[in-house]
Amino acid sequence: MTNVPLLDLKAQFAQIRTEVMPLIESVCASQQFILGEHVRGLEEELSRYCGSEHGIGVSSGTDALLLALMALEIGSGDEVLTSPFTFFATAGAIARTGARPVFCDIDPLTFNLSATALQLFIDAECTEGEHGLVHRATGGRIKAIMPVHLYGQSADMSPLMAIARRHGLRVIEDAAQAIGTEYQNGTRAGSIGDIGCFSFFPSKNLGAFGDAGLCTTQDAELAERMRVLRVHGGKPKYYHAVIGGNFRIDELQAAVLRVKLKYLDGWTEGRQRNAAFYDRAFAKAELGAGVGRKVVVTPHAVPGQRHIFNQYIVRVERRDELRKFLTDRKIGTEIYYPVPLHVQECFAYLGYKAGDFPESERAAAETLALPIYPELAEEQLAYVVASITEFFKPS
C-alpha cells in the first residue's frame, strides 16, 4: 500500500541540509541571536519578494496580526470586519487587543471574505457617525477590515479596498498562507492594504524551524512604529513612550528562512504542478452524482491570479466518511477548518448562532485538504485520486 502523508518536511530538509546546517553553525559561533544581520537581510529580501517597501520580522504569524492591530491603535470600543472561516488567530488577535471581531460570510468559490457580504452588513447594520462608521447594535466603531488570503489564493481586494476608502477603514491582510500569492497584474498579497501579515510556521510554503512571521507595509511611519512596538515599545533602549511587546524574530529562524527563500518559487511550482495533476485526474474520473452535480469539487483558481496552493482543498460529499477511508489507506488529510469562528465557545459573547453564516458553515462541513507538497511523486498523487474514486465508485 502506498503511503501518502499530508506533509513530509524531511524531504524538504534533505534538499537544503548542506546549505542550512553550516549557517546555523555560524550563527551559533557568533552568539548574535537577537536582531542580527540575518534578520536585517531577511527583512530586505522578503519585503522585496512581497512587493512592499518595508518588512518587519516578528515571532509568529499570530504576533504579526497582533502587532499590526497595535500599530494601527485598534483596541477597546473598536471593531474589525473579518471572516469566520479561517484559523483562530485571525479573530483571536482582534479580541486580544480588546477590540471586537465582526464576521461577514465568505465567497463559496474561493472561501475568502465576500466583499458583497461585507457591504451588505455595512448597509444594513452600520451608520456614519461623527467619528466614522458605527455598528448600531453594539455602538462600536468599525476601524478596519481584515481579509484572509485563504489556502494560498488572494481575496478579492479591489472591492474590499474600495469599501475601506469609502468609509475610512484600515486594511490588515492576513496573508499567513499566502507568501508569493498574486492578486491582479502581479500585485502580491500583503502589499495592498495598510499592513500585510505572514506566518512562517513550519508547515507553510515558506516555513521556519519553529515559529516566525513578518509584517509588511508601504508606509515608512507605520514600519518604524512596528519596529518599536516589537521591542516592548522601547526607543532608545529602556525608554518607553508606548507599550509594546516582545515580538522579535529569532536570528536562527531568519538564517534558515533566507536559505529557504531561494527555493520558494521552485517549491511553489511543484505545488502548482501537483494541483494541475489533481485537477486533470479528478476531471477524468468524472465523479458526478446527477445532472450538473459533482461529489468532488476541485479548487477554483481565479484566472489572472497566482494561487500558491498552501493547501489543495476539495469539497466532497460524506466528508468524514471519506477521510476515515483515506486514513485507512495511509493517505493523510486535514480539515481546515471544522468549526467556524462564530460558533466557537470562546466567542459566544459575540452573540452569533449556527445558521448566521451559511457559506462558512457549509465549507466547514464539506472541505478536505489533500496532500499537495512539492516532493510528492506522481504515483502518490494517482493513488490519492484512485482511492477517492474507489470510495465514490465502489466496484
What does this structure look like?
The protein is α/β, with parallel strands linked by helices and 395 residues long. The protein has two domains: 9-261, 3-Layer(aba) Sandwich (Aspartate Aminotransferase, domain 2), CATH 3.40.640; 265-392, Aspartate Aminotransferase, domain 1. 39% of the residues lie in helices and 14% in strands. It has helices at residues 9-30, 37-49, 61-71, 89-96, 115-125, 157-167, 220-229, 251-261, 264-285, 319-328, 358-366, 378-392, and strands at residues 54-58, 78-82, 100-103, 126-129, 132-135, 141-146, 170-174, 195-199, 213-217, 296-297, 312-316, 367-370. The strands form three sheets. The protein has a seven-stranded mixed beta sheet, sandwiched between helices. It has a three-stranded antiparallel beta sheet with strand order 10-11-12. Strands 4-5 form a two-stranded antiparallel ribbon. Helix 2 (37-49) crosses helix 8 (251-261) and helix 3 packs across helix 4 (89-96). The longest helix has 22 residues, at 9-30. The relative contact order is 0.16.
Quick overview of this protein structure:
With 395 residues, the chain is an alpha/beta fold.
